[in-house]
Amino acid sequence: MLHLVIFIPFLFALIIPLLRTKLSNIHLGWFVLAVPVLLFTYFISFLEKMIQGEKIHSTLNWIPSLDINFVFVIDGLSMLFSLLITGIGSLVVLYSIFYLNKKENLGHFYFYLLLFMGAMLGVVLSDNIFVLYMFWEFTSISSFLLIGFWFHREKSRYGALKSMLITVFGGLALFASFLLMSITTGSTSIREIILNSEAIINSNYFVLILILFLLGAFTKSAQFPFHTWLPDAMEAPTPVSAYLHSATMVKAGIYLVARFFLVFQGEQLFAIIVSVFGIVTLAWGSFMAVRQTDLKGILAFSTISQLGMIMAMLGFGAGYENKVAIVAAVFHIFNHATFKGSLFMVAGIIDHETGTRDIRRLGGLYTFMPITATLAFFGTFSMAGFPLPVFNGFLSKEMFFKAAILDNVLDISILIPILAVIGSIFTFVYSMILFFKPFTGKENMLDRQPHEAPIGLLVSPAILVSFIIIIGLLPNIISEPILAPAVSAINGEIPLINIHFWHGFTNIPIWMSFTVVVIGTLLFRYRDKWTPFYNVFPGRWSAANVYDYLVNNTFTFAKSVTSFFMTGSIRNYLSIILGFLIGTLAVTIYITDGFAVSYDDLAPITWPVAFTGITMVFASIATIFMKNRIAAILVLGVVGYGLSILFVFFKAPDLALTQLIIETVTVALFLLCFYHLPDLTKTKESLSRKTLNIVISLSAGFIVTIIAIASHSFKKFDAISEYFIETSVSLGGGHNIVNVILVDMRGLDTLFEITVLGIAALAIISMIKLRKKEEVDS
Amino acid sequence: MEIFMSIVSGCLVAAGVYLLLQRQILKIIIGTAILSHAAHLLILTMGKLDRGAPPIIKDGITKYADPLPQALILTSIVISFGVTSYLLVLAYRTYNENRTDNMEQLRGTDNE
């Protein structure tokens, strides 16, 4: 049953084209809506079992021989994410029905969205790491498709490519980490890996496994410095931003860290990296969010900063026996999904009704859109952590402050709560900007008269906002069914969660919250005074610029490398080939100590033979210096005729005969072409080129010589020629052994040698005869 | 004798390679011809030189020169002749078409 649940989105995606053509007058989203609603109710039905601490397993074989199977497990953590995915998925689909025009390519949109939903469910429910990885990449691909949904826009394509490159880079790192994990523990199941976590921690690859693993988690969850893809992903339609880039996909990295928490728990390195990167992301993301002028840009950086906060809490929980941190992380995962989802939807409504998302052009919308403004009020103040019991964001922020105060660790850890407060102050500032800029102040400078959004667009954010309020007022209603099972799935302990609103004045966190509100209000009030400070920083060192620099320079670098050796000059290629050949041979001879000279079993040197050999050498060298082409051809003939004389001396009559004839024909051919061939003009060579040529040719000759001498000195076996000599007459019926070999013993060689000649002849004919018509005319 | 012949073919290889690295098409073809001579000589040398009678069966002779390398060289000579003649005609056509025999100028276009 569980398998069916995960594959339902994929199966439904397949019938979308059918629905689109058959029922084109109804908005496609209404059919799609059934899928997440159905899944949501299905997951809700497990809540009872979660409270009792049960887990639901389900296995379907895929590649049993490699131990890769669809093993799905629902525990508290998977449950939390499944509910978010299907719940917010339902709301987003509902919202998109009113947001997207029927003229848009809805078939594509819902196909990608369902693909994403199924993949995301697969990520959070898989127990097999390779199946998890498969779904992980599925989310990258479907997110790429969704960001590039309006593919005719340049910026959409840029954003899609950027998110693809960064998340797939992290995905591959994650894959490497998974491979190492499965090698060290001998298992592909997360549950078994957790049981064998000693093997990972004690292995030599521990640091590598950890870093690759965190690379995967950090790129997906947009942690510093990999956050740069998320602001550019805002080119996606707003329902996509609300779904993928606030509530679900960007939390996949968080999920991963939480899921493998038990493996790395207690490792200082893990705790330090995760908390430091998280807290830096929190501070940097909120700092940059204030600078943005686009509603969705602010929300993107705010998402980055909130993800950093959750990540930091997981880090705090890992190394420092900090129980509250994990509870706070889980609580904030839930809260962030509610308020950020609603805020994205509100931003979409403003865009939809006014035609712009630029906060410099928006203002005074409260009078026109009171409901939207109310929804935005709850979302932004909850995000800011405003201390009122109706905002769930305040509760989790308070817990975050409590978790950030790390006792009895390094002195430098005092920086952590300071950074947390700074990040929260900026969070407060941008939240206020997000609410007050568009909804209050001057009347708008818009082209059209804005009016309240249709009811359909308001339903989804209203539901999310009601969650903000309900959880803000009664936080403990979700603590038993949702938070406690999730926390126990992360760190293996069942916590007693009782979330209070008020801790009294003796508590440090409450003072941190007050500090945030006071300084944040002041900074917001006088923002015109200090925001020019942002211009002090040049944009050159931003992560986006580093990304652009890397991507562009990869192309330039690849081009320059290629053009360095792909010059189009045959001489250069030959030099590289020969140089490599000589180099490898020389190194091999040197390493294997392969050179040896044996003076046994040598034929005596006779004067006529020596004279012929020396003549050939001189003639071959002479061809180099010939200025006259006919002389060069004739000197080449000397080498050939010398060779045939050597064949005579060495008792090879057939060879001598053939060589003589061939040499004559070749020389004749050279002379025949002679009239048409170019003159041997003197070409100027640079001295370095000449030296290089001499070095290459001399070392080639030298290498050939020593290999020949060495191999001659290492005869291991007798020749097989005795057989040919014995059987030449009896089997072949001929006295000339060479000829018998050629046509009888090894006749196949001869057949194809004839073919070669035939092909050469045909090629020559066609080269001379066949030309394009106009060439013949001219 | 075998060592001497190894050195001779090494020298031929050096001369052939030097010619291959030249710019003029004709020199490159001459280089390939010299290289094939060097290879043939090397094959023969490796099969031991100057042992016994020519490999033609006659009564009363028991020791013959190794016939197998000879058969191999014979095949090779014919093939290298085919290739050389083809290259020669190719050079002629190249020169006709492009009016240059300088390999540095015969680089093709960027799209090739």
Automatic annotation (TrEMBL), chain A:
<dbReference type="InterPro" id="IPR046806">
    <property type="entry name" value="MrpA_C/MbhE"/>
</dbReference>
<dbReference type="InterPro" id="IPR001750">
    <property type="entry name" value="ND/Mrp_TM"/>
</dbReference>
<keyword id="KW-0812">Transmembrane</keyword>
<feature type="transmembrane region" description="Helical">
    <location>
        <begin position="573"/>
        <end position="592"/>
    </location>
</feature>
<dbReference type="Pfam" id="PF00662">
    <property type="entry name" value="Proton_antipo_N"/>
</dbReference>
<feature type="domain" description="MrpA C-terminal/MbhD">
    <location>
        <begin position="615"/>
        <end position="678"/>
    </location>
</feature>
<keyword id="KW-1133">Transmembrane helix</keyword>
<dbReference type="GO" id="GO:0005886">
    <property type="term" value="C:plasma membrane"/>
</dbReference>
<keyword id="KW-0813">Transport</keyword>
<dbReference type="Pfam" id="PF20501">
    <property type="entry name" value="MbhE"/>
</dbReference>
<comment type="similarity">
    <text>Belongs to the CPA3 antiporters (TC 2.A.63) subunit A family.</text>
</comment>
<feature type="transmembrane region" description="Helical">
    <location>
        <begin position="508"/>
        <end position="526"/>
    </location>
</feature>
<dbReference type="GO" id="GO:0006814">
    <property type="term" value="P:sodium ion transport"/>
</dbReference>
<feature type="domain" description="MrpA C-terminal/MbhE">
    <location>
        <begin position="689"/>
        <end position="769"/>
    </location>
</feature>
<dbReference type="GO" id="GO:1902600">
    <property type="term" value="P:proton transmembrane transport"/>
</dbReference>
<feature type="transmembrane region" description="Helical">
    <location>
        <begin position="695"/>
        <end position="714"/>
    </location>
</feature>
<feature type="transmembrane region" description="Helical">
    <location>
        <begin position="750"/>
        <end position="768"/>
    </location>
</feature>
<dbReference type="InterPro" id="IPR005663">
    <property type="entry name" value="MrpA/MnhA1/PhaAB"/>
</dbReference>
<feature type="transmembrane region" description="Helical">
    <location>
        <begin position="324"/>
        <end position="350"/>
    </location>
</feature>
<feature type="domain" description="NADH:quinone oxidoreductase/Mrp antiporter transmembrane">
    <location>
        <begin position="126"/>
        <end position="420"/>
    </location>
</feature>
<feature type="transmembrane region" description="Helical">
    <location>
        <begin position="203"/>
        <end position="219"/>
    </location>
</feature>
<feature type="domain" description="NADH-Ubiquinone oxidoreductase (complex I) chain 5 N-terminal">
    <location>
        <begin position="63"/>
        <end position="110"/>
    </location>
</feature>
TrEMBL record, chain B:
<keyword id="KW-1133">Transmembrane helix</keyword>
<feature type="transmembrane region" description="Helical">
    <location>
        <begin position="67"/>
        <end position="89"/>
    </location>
</feature>
<feature type="transmembrane region" description="Helical">
    <location>
        <begin position="28"/>
        <end position="47"/>
    </location>
</feature>
<comment type="similarity">
    <text>Belongs to the CPA3 antiporters (TC 2.A.63) subunit C family.</text>
</comment>
<protein>
    <submittedName>
        <fullName>Na(+)/H(+) antiporter subunit C</fullName>
    </submittedName>
</protein>
<dbReference type="GO" id="GO:0005886">
    <property type="term" value="C:plasma membrane"/>
</dbReference>
<dbReference type="InterPro" id="IPR039428">
    <property type="entry name" value="NUOK/Mnh_C1-like"/>
</dbReference>
<dbReference type="Pfam" id="PF00420">
    <property type="entry name" value="Oxidored_q2"/>
</dbReference>
<keyword id="KW-0472">Membrane</keyword>
<feature type="transmembrane region" description="Helical">
    <location>
        <begin position="6"/>
        <end position="21"/>
    </location>
</feature>
<keyword id="KW-1003">Cell membrane</keyword>
<dbReference type="InterPro" id="IPR050601">
    <property type="entry name" value="CPA3_antiporter_subunitC"/>
</dbReference>
<keyword id="KW-0812">Transmembrane</keyword>
